Backbone:
């Protein structure tokens, strides 16, 4: 069943560190993908209740990345507090397409699409997202995209 | 003038190292973006004749990333020789959209679109790609995309 | 003047993420150095009141690493909460030798020595630690090492 | 048997890339540890004939880091060709202490000690270095240190 009310957004802040920045003094873009991936990891652990170590070791499932892309509007600088907002753009049978937006204050910095697909780590084959997980995921699905 | 013959492809190999791989034993996707960015850096230095340290320090220009995305077809493993093939999908007035494909042997692993835009590092404003650089870049433009 | 009472320890927790871990499923050692460096950055910003962006841009000073080393007692795993405890082993005229210990619960994971030296970023020469900073640093100096 | 003649040095070059450098325009020290570890990986594969994927998967042995440290003499910059020279400082029953020096031209940049210990990945216990490997390693042992 599709969500009937306003979908949830999962928000995490990242302080821009010295090690994130390049010789131009701005965040090296590759580090944004690491941050996006980290927010997805936090979301699985905190919003869905499935920490990665449990997902991989106990349940033997993984979510390899199928497709990812990011548009960068403005650079981020050392000391910025980057707010990363995760929602689900599209929830498929075995795949999730996340939409992650990054802001510093009111300034939009980036917008990413990040698609993962559920895989059984023993058979290395795609599998449907189990119902116990799907139910919790539905809260984060944007209505226009179901 | 558009290229009249077969466009060039700039190819570099990357050996997949231990440090590229994640607990699933495959390359952590973020490292692919670092490799793609490194091939672009090699291309500027070796094909266009503009090493990054000269570009940034002497000529005071930079190529910040506007937009990047990658589709992952199959995982890469420790010890693989990943061949990265760079061509230009679209060459704009101040922007370049690279197309980078990754293969291990005959197996296609990834396909990326990576768009950068030329910026004057003193004014922090977009600028047209200088003619001396543009001329060399044209050899790498795929005909269908000019 | 040497500190007369129990020195302070600056403690920060790091959750071990998927991206920190290697194909053996444990933290790739290089990431520990990044975490250690990040705790030093946090300490400058939060304990000494000198965030890195202010240090570098406004005051034009930097603290390049002179020497660093780490002993690893036991591996860290995905999902671990690593507690990093920073103290000053030795405070010189222009240098600071940090001692950073890492634990997960009661289990000691690592012990690092990390020495930085203050440099004027305009002259690129060593300089004495300014008194306003030194005063705050003294609280973190282990008595045996002054 | 101890080596009787001049010990071998295993040398690999690393071009300093944009992604290695920090906002001060010099190599972020953490990346040196990644390079050192990479040279050790190259040495196992090319000098000892035991590539990491074979070591881990076929022979089920690993070489976790026990202890590592590095002294930094001078910074490295974008575009530098860093030459990394690996020798063995001390070869123990189950451990190897590498000595890695880094130069750019005649200028010494860094000197590292990097100690690893052989582990059986199935039992997670230390094990003696097998004779077929030890024989090849002896060529790289500095005479004063045996």
Residues:
């Amino acid at each position: 069943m599709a969500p009937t009310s306003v979908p949830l957004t999962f928000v995490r802040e990242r302080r821009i560190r010295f090690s994130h920045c390049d010789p131009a003094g701005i965040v090296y873009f590759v580090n944004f993908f690491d941050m996006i991936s980290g927010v997805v990891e936090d979301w699985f652990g905190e919003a869905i209740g499935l920490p990665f170590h449990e997902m991989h070791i106990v349940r033997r499932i993984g979510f390899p990345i199928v497709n990812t892309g990011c548009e960068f509007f403005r650079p981020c600088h050392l000391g910025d507090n980057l707010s990363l907002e995760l929602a689900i753009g599209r929830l498929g049978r075995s795949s999730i397409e996340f939409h992650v937006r990054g802001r510093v204050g009111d300034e939009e910095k980036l917008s990413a699409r990040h698609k993962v697909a559920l895989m059984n780590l023993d058979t290395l084959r795609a599998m449907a997202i189990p119902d116990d997980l799907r139910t919790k995921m539905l809260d984060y699905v944007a209505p226009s995209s179901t």
Notes: The CA atoms of residues 35 and 97 of chain C lie 16 Å apart. The mean pLDDT of chain C is 93. The interface with chain D takes residues 23-24, 26, 29-30, 33-34, 37, 56, 62, 64-72, 75, 113, 121 of chain C (CB under 8 Å).
